[in-house]
Structure formats: C-alpha cells, structure tokens
Amino acid sequence: MTRQRTGGRRRPLTIAIGLAVVSVIAAGCSSSGSSSSGGGGATQNSATQNGGGAVAGATVPTANLPVLQTVGKGEGQLNLIAWEGYLDPKWVKPFQQQTGCQVNAKYAGSSDEMVALMKNGGGGQYDMVSSSGDADLRILYAGDAHPVNVKLIPSWKDFYPAFQSPPFNTINGVHYGVSLQWGPNVLMYNTKDFPTAPSSWNVIYDPKYKGQVTVPDNPIQIADAALYLKTTKPSLGITDPYELTQPQFQAAVSLLATQKPLIEKYWSLASQEIFDFKNGNATVGAGWPYQVSTLKADKFTIGSVVPSEGATGWADTWMLAAKAPHPNCAYKWMQYISTPQVQALQAVTYGETPDNKLACPYMNKLQAGSCAEYHANAPASFLDSISLWKTPLATCDNGQNNCVPYAQWVSAWNTQVK
C-alpha cells in the first residue's frame, strides 16, 4: 500500500503532523531521487533515482541516538503498525514460539494513518511500522524513527544491494529500519467480464463501466492518474507522476473528478475491495497482489495485469519507532522477517517481490513458478515498469520549486475528487 493495503490501506487522513513535516521538507528542499522509492536488483544509482533520501537543509532529529549493540532477551511483547496481511499467522506464530515475543497488531489503512500513529516516536506504545515510500521521509524528518544497527540483522547482507541502504530508509549512512518487500498496484478485473485482460488503465475511466469501478481512497491515487496521462497525453510533459507542476497536477485531478461517477467504492481496506469483487459490486479496479491472491485462493474469477502505461507501486520498510518500548523484540523481528524463508513465505502469500536475493528457491518450493511470477529472479527489469511511491515535494528533483507538494494532493483529493 500505502497504498492502502491488505485488508487495508485505508483512507488518508488530513493529519497535522504529516502535513507539517511535508511543509518543512518542501520549503526550499529537494530530495535526491527522481521517480520512485526502491529497486530490486538495480544498481545503487537506480535506487537513488528511485527514492527520497537526504533532503538538503534538513536533518533527521534522531540521527545521533545510540543504536543497540547486542540483542538481549525479548521483552515478551511487540507492538506493530502494519498493512493488513503483513502479520499473517503463518509467519507470526513461529516467530512468537521462537522468541517469546507476543505480536500485537495495529492495522493501518493508509500511509497517512501510519504517519499519525508514529507521531511522537510511536508514543511509547508502538515498536515498528511497515511504512511505504510515501510515508518514510515524513516519519524520519519528524523525528519519529530510531536508528538501527543492521550489523545485528544477519540476513541484511543477503539483500539486493539497492535494498541494503536505500534512500527511503537510510539517510547519510544511518539506517532507520530494514527493507522488506515491494510490488505493484495492479489493474484487477473479473475474468467473466473481461475474458481478455485489459491492456490499458483506460478501462477504469471508461463510462461503459459506470458503477463497477473501485480504486483506493488515497491522495496518492493522483499519481496513478498522472502515470496514465504521461502516456495518453504526452503534451502535458509528465516525466514523474510524483513531481507534477500545477497544470500537470490539475489535469490528473480533473481526470479523477470525471471518474467519480464510475466509482462503486473508494475502498479503505483491501478486504472491502475483496468483498466488492466477490459480491459482484465491482468488476474492475486498482488494487494490490494481495487482493488478487486472496480472491484466487477463494476460487474467484479474478485476473490482474500491469497495463501498458506501467503502474505505481510500493517499497516497504520495517521502521523502528523512536520510543519503541520493546527494542529487543523489535530486533528479533527484523532478524526473523529478513530471512529468505520468511521473505519467501510473505512474498507468495501476499504476492510481492522479496528483498532477500536468496528467497527464490524457497518461493518455488512453496508455489511452483512463484519466483518468476513475482519477478524475484529479475527484479531490476520488472522495476522499470513500476513507479514506486514517494512523498510529493514542492521542490522538484531538478531543483525547480514548481512541483505540487503533498498537502495540496490531500486537499485536492478530498475537495475536488471525492
């Protein structure tokens, strides 16, 4: 997600802290990336291109906090903010049995909600968050994440290089968590209604499907419209769906406003989209591989595709809260969730691409052909078709101060689109 994810990446909130951080970052600052927020087997240069990273003139308030040097006995509890589906009993129960750390889940429905829950370093309540690229920098520059000692996470060395120290969770050499998995926001369709897979996102803007379309309730959906317009209206000159000038931004917002009569539901939780497809309320829409795999497991006639225009997507991080009450259990979780076996299990269950390059054989044991299906054997080439989420800033990556910042995305979504 967010992305609103499994079971749900939910409705983005107009959150003071989130918008304040964006404003601080946006005011005369620029990120080091240009188009997305991570990269599979890509080079570090690609990862820098695809991220946020250090922001000129801004510092991470928690950068100098001391990191754990050894992992001690677990505290018995671990409070996690997560996308639904990221804490599946298939891998949570073995972790609890192995470590004695009882996992308590708080499912968030959107990146904005995650930013809010992480306010004040997690408030001394939450230990970690499975944040996405459109939330990472807001959390970091608000001082809500704690530096992490990756030397205590053995499987970190087996990550694809681009995910070892990516700019969305590592600033000036300081890590604030460990990369997890990444994947696309796909076009979903009922195969009974679409015997042939749609080749373009144009179906979710087609009046023919009025009342049958479902998309996430999320301001970052504006980037999906911009990505579509990048191909279909090249005269707009869109090069990055997260870096939009005012005319480009307004074109994307206008497209989404015309889409509104077609919408059956702006879904807040992935479980809502699953319900709507199962019950025939929706026949086509934007979603995640999680919904697709869940529906397929239930023998529903669902298909998915990354259309010709490409897709947006996410790269997630298990980020440590600045005031994590159970740091030893948090490190045990990072150690566990980074192993190739667990990465493979989550990848196959959720339908995303693991960051651990050793996960492929385990994926194929769990589900024949899944390594290739989820592009874990060729992540760099697959990444070329995905524009991973990042926080929209006022200062474009070319240094010009004419891009529309995230606060305006939230406002436009709530007042012009919906």
Describe this structure in words.
- The structure is a single chain.
- The chain is of the alpha/beta class and 418 residues long.
- The protein contains 16 helices and 14 strands.
- β1 (77-82), α3 (89-99) and β2 form a beta-alpha-beta unit.
- α7 crosses α8 (246-259), α8 runs parallel beside α16 (406-417) and α9 crosses α10 (289-297).
- It is globular.
- The model is unreliable at 1-52 (pLDDT under 50).
SSE topology:
Layout: H1 16-26, H2 44-49, E1 77-82, H3 89-99, E2 102-107, H4 111-117, E3 128-131, H5 136-141, H6 161-164, E4 170-171, E5 174-175, E6 177-184, E7 186-190, E8 213-216, H7 221-232, H8 246-259, E9 263-267, H9 270-278, E10 284-287, H10 289-297, E11 302-305, E12 311-320, H11 327-337, H12 340-350, E13 353-354, H13 360-366, H14 370-373, H15 379-383, E14 386-388, H16 406-417
Parallel strand pairs: 1-2, 1-3, 8-9, 8-10, 12-14
Antiparallel strand pairs: 3-12, 4-5, 6-12, 6-13, 7-10, 7-11
In short:
33% of the residues lie in helices and 16% in strands. It has 16 helices and 14 strands. Strands 1, 2, 3, 6, 12, 13 and 14 form a 7-stranded mixed sheet that branches.
For the terminal residues, how far apart are their CA atoms? 20 Å
Q: What structural class do the secondary elements suggest? A: alpha/beta
Instruction: Give the strand content.
Output: 15-25%
The biggest beta sheet is recorded as: 7 strands, mixed
Uncertain spans, ≥5 residues at pLDDT below 50?
Answer: 1-52
- What's the shape? globular
Beta strand count: 14
